[in-house]
Amino acid sequence: VSTGNGCGHTLLAPHSGTLSSKNYPGTYPNHTMCRWQLQAPPGTSLLLAFGDVDLEPSEHCAHSSLLLSDPQAGTAYGPYCRNSVPSAPLLVTNSSSVTVLFNSTSHRSGRGLLLSYATSQHPEGQSKHSLPLAVRFSVYCPAGCKDIHGDIWGNPSQGYRDTSVLCKAAVHAGVIADELGGQVTLSREKGITLYESAFANGLHSKRWVSRGCTPRPAVGPVSCRLPSPACDDALEVAAFNASSWWHEVDVLGQVRAWVAERAALGTAGHSWAAEPSAEAAWLELDLGTRRNVTGIITKGSSEQHDYYVMSYRVSSSRDGKNWKPYRGSANQEDKVFEGNADSHGEVSNAFIPPIVARYVR
Fold it and tell me: Which cysteines are joined by disulfide bonds (predicted)?
């Protein structure tokens, strides 16, 4: 739970989370306050990782401060600011409940704060979003990494440049869900010099080309490869169905039907499109038998018309009669997937956990 007018990006999940001050990594505002109440499951304790604590210095951190308190043990950590920083990047508590309090008065500088937490069920610690030189290693990524500051490079199938924001790359690749976090294993490889940009799971990576200039020339271009989610490649669709489809009439009076069968990715020419007056359009895929569906890729139709779907929900069924909405890892409300921003690019979204169904709508 978070309260106050100084709260920035915050995602607090049962086993991990990320929190930041308002405007981070820009200068935090004057005269604000935020209180985060972190609660771990019974029988576990909290581990807090200080990603960044940059509050304007003052005596005893009186002007701006970060204070952590452990009500169960009656202990406190801090106050912290720029001239009084945490002694270690990882704080291991003996409590399942910690209150994080951020205060600011008048100041001129400071990025604010970025913290993440996990529970003692993950003793290997959390990622601070940087890569050591190990060939293969594993980190625990806290929930909420998707919207922290930083760029990623690469295509999910190719790997990632070694300066990537690690956990954002894992969300982009569909290895973990941003709303829950999770364990990520990586391996360092060399020889990949071209990365095509891609839009996946709400994150747009950047295109990057190696030009033979690296910090470690003896090693050569280095990338980090994330394990791919379990996937049997593209599924065969036995039949398509839709709520409606558009019968386009051109200037010569000829009719062209944008029928459901044209929804298959890679179909030449025009795609499927619902009747323009339809308010609740849906497209249905019959996979022929129950299959394990790990994600979906969408693309618009650029032939003559700049058509694409900006967002959508997903439902699934095992019998074609009883439908179950997809609610993602947090399982709280129907998940709205971010779709396309143009009619040309492909957008990937992973299902974490996967869907087991014959019909997907």
Answer: 7-34
